[in-house]
Amino acid sequence: MRVAVIGAGSWGTALAWVLAGNGHSVALWAHSQATAEAINATHRNPRYLSAVELPDAITATHSYAQALEGAEAVAIVTPSSVLREVLRAVSAHVGATTPVVLCSKGVEGGSGLLPAEIATEELGALERLAVLSGPNHAEEVIKGTPSATVIASAEKPTALLFRDLFATRSFRTYTSTDMTGVELCAAFKNVIAIAVGMAYGVGFGDNTAAVLITRGLAEMGRLVVACGGDTLTCMGLAGAGDMVVTCMSEHSRNRRFGEQYVARGLTLDDFHEREHMVVEGVVACKNLLTLAERYGIELPIASVVREVLWNGLSLQEAARLLEGRPLTTEFHDL
């Protein structure tokens, strides 16, 4: 098939590599004309995963029209903060029935909409949409390290199409119908990873990390159920799987931001200047609370992360707030 991948960051580059390895022709849209030209000239992405040579089946472009011309399937792999803008830009070039898989992880500010809801507004036809998420660090996927992901769609044929499109011996794909649950898990785990990073950064250990991960899963489940998703999704690849890898991996930019930047008094601007990557959890901790307030549910860890990142709460006071919460039964709110 001819597949368009919109977004040439690390994850977009890795997914393009997977697709090309499956024999598909890939048009990779890059935000920068210089990046697109470099990929075509050297078969390497100069900004992300540059050590890996990309297959000849990948052609880069800075033009939406060129990337989407003749595309039989589309993968949107851009930061969630610009998702609506990108979808609006590509809408004129995507066929009315062309399958689209969303690989962005976040919640829209103000509206609290998830990626599939934004895409439904901008592209229409929910039945041709899918979402992809899982414990997938691009640095390992592009090396062929055994990995797995989940692809959720309201329509089984759409989920199966993308399942088979991406599946390789080293990149296993599973299907789900719970788009809401998968998308909320994808956003929420980044917030908890920042919390874990901050905890390590101030000198706490593995016990603390385990508490934050498991109680973070409880908060995740609470939010997923309130929004109409399936709590079992939180125990799967998009939930527990992605939570563990994002909180514990050396590749995790969200954990790294909490541990090496926030805990040392550095800022998000410092991170962007040095690493040229988006920390999705910074915005997610604020936007997820929009949903929590809408449904009247409590998210203690996410709330504390928001207060630290957006309102100047000290890490010492953040720890005291969580340590001082009332004692209760473990599963009282699920």
Walk me through what this model shows.
The chain has 334 residues and is α/β, with parallel strands linked by helices. The protein is 51% helix and 11% strand. It contains 15 helices and 8 strands. It has helices at 10-21, 33-42, 64-68, 83-90, 115-123, 138-141, 156-166, 179-201, 206-226, 237-248, 253-261, 268-275, 280-295, 300-311, 315-323, and strands at residues 2-6, 25-29, 58-61, 73-76, 100-102, 129-133, 147-152, 171-176. An 8-stranded mixed beta sheet has the order 3-2-1-4-5-6-7-8, sandwiched between helices. α8 (179-201) packs antiparallel against α9 (206-226), α8 (179-201) packs parallel to α10 and α9 runs antiparallel to α10 (237-248). The longest helix is centred in the middle third of the chain and has 23 residues, at 179-201. It is globular, with a radius of gyration of 19 Å.
Task: Based on the model shown, name its key terms.
single chain; alpha/beta; eight-stranded mixed sheet; 11% strand; globular
Q: Secondary-structure element order, as H and E? A: EHEHEHEHEHEHEHEHHHHHHHH
Which residues sit in consecutive blocks of at least 5 with pLDDT less than 50?
none
**What gap, in angstroms, lies between the N and C termini?**
43 Å
Radius of gyration: 19 Å
Q: Care to count the β-strands? A: 8
Q: Mind describing the biggest β-sheet?
A: 8 strands, mixed
Strand order, biggest sheet?
Answer: 3-2-1-4-5-6-7-8
Helical content, roughly?
40-55%
What form results from the Cα inertia axes? globular
Annotation field: number of helices? 15
Please identify the structural class as seen in this structure: alpha/beta
* Average of the residue pLDDT scores: 95
Q: Kindly estimate the percentage of residues that lie in beta strands according to DSSP.
A: 5-15%
